[in-house]
Sequence to fold (223 residues):
Amino acid sequence: DVKVTQSSRYLVKRTGEKVFLECVQDMDHENMFWYRQDPGLGLRLIYFSYDVKMKEKGDIPEGYSVSREKKERFSLILESASTNQTSMYLCASSLIISGANVLTFGAGSRLTVL
Amino acid sequence: GQNIDQPTEMTATEGAIVQINCTYQTSGFNGLFWYQQHAGEAPTFLSYNVLDGLEEKGRFSSFLSRSKGYSYLLLKELQMKDSASYLCASMDSNYQLIWGAGTKLIIKP
Fold:
């Protein structure tokens, strides 16, 4: 069964701390994504990557950075966590099949910043 | 501009049929996705439409009208396990997805 695995389901951090969210996929997908999901809003794209060592800003990159040193791993970094970054973070990987960019998601990491 | 609208919440009865609508405005429209997300879990892919018409997959069907910027997800013979949020997303010509806020479907016995 194909998988996207996020390292932590629940994290609690303090304002100003550095936070690492790890994501690993075992499907050999080229594309990987980080989204945040907040009540009443659609998924918002933070960063994405189409290849190793490549990254592109999404719609809300401010306050975040990413790293993709290996094809299977895409990390999201909050350099200095703030309370407005309390959210559910979803990682996804994808393959474009017959013109469709079909995403497979991880189970999510719920981050609370105090 | 880019915009996706879907109802916030719907309620239906076990065994019945429900239709969840989605309207979109997407530059360079290149397809429409539906995902299911149970509470606390990952969204999972349900369907993809790029041509007009109805695609049927068991109890679930998805419809697209490109000229109207409209799609719906039809769920038949509802089961309690269908209680979930249903996310609509349009794809643009760069393969980027624009997501709706999701429709929470509540199934009552």
